[in-house]
Amino acid sequence: MKRMNSNFHYIVRGIIRDGDFVLLCKQKTGDYTFLPGGHIDFGEAAEVALIREIKEEIGAKVSVGEFRGAIENAWEDNCEISLVFNVEHDLRKENTPTPASPEEEHLAFLWVHQDALQQSNLYPVPLIEWLQG
Questions:
Q1: Cα→Cα distances 40→28, 31, 78, 98, Å
Q2: Interior CA angle at 76 toward 73 and 77, to 5°?
Q3: Residues 6+ apart with CB under 8 A from 104
Q4: Which of 1, 26, 58, 124 has the highest local Cβ count within 10 Å?
Q5: What pLDDT score was predicted for residue 3?
Q6: Does 73 score more than 70 pLDDT?
Q7: 62 by DSSP, 3-state: which?
Q8: pLDDT confidence of residue 2
Q9: What pTM, to 2 d.p., does this model score?
């Protein structure tokens, strides 16, 4: 029996599109990208967490759309389950969001064409196929 890694993360992520472009996040010191979102607090509904996380990250008011699925991701001594939803919004690729508060200054945001997601080092990797299809 394989043991679960010691650091477990329960995450919600949002797919924010403008045409064929997808909004991604990256840690300014990191070499990979990920969808906007973050940790779900104990007892918090995933949809509520996603709205809260996007508001905290970029200050945008959004609504949660269709549930797209769950993805498991493991690295080093960590494991996460990410619940992924479509996000309804009024963001446009001509205006790249910036961090909404000093607590989010470690993040950068970028619009990436769906055909360039692999070159953007998007994690978890199964998202690439989901977003290109």
A1: 22, 24, 16, 22
A2: 90
A3: 56, 57, 58
A4: 58
A5: 56
A6: yes
A7: coil
A8: 56
A9: 0.91
Using omega within 30 degrees of 0 as the cis cutoff, is the peptide bond preceding 99 cis?
no
**d(C-alpha 47, C-alpha 106), whole Å:** 24
Residue with tokens 């909004």: 23
Residue 29, C-beta contacts closer than 8 angstroms, at least 6 positions apart: 106
Closest among 13, 7, 2, 20 to 93, alpha carbons compared: 20
Average pLDDT over residues 27-38: 94
Phi first, then psi: give them for residue 28, nearest 5 degrees: -55, -30
Residues with Cβ within 8 Å of residue 59, at least 6 apart in sequence: 97, 100, 101
Q: Are strands 107-113 and 37-39 parallel, antiparallel or unpaired?
A: unpaired
pLDDT of 1 higher than 50: no
Per-residue model confidence as pLDDT tens digits over 38-66: 999 999 999 999 999 999 999 999 999 99
Residues 83, 64 contacting (CB under 8 angstroms): no
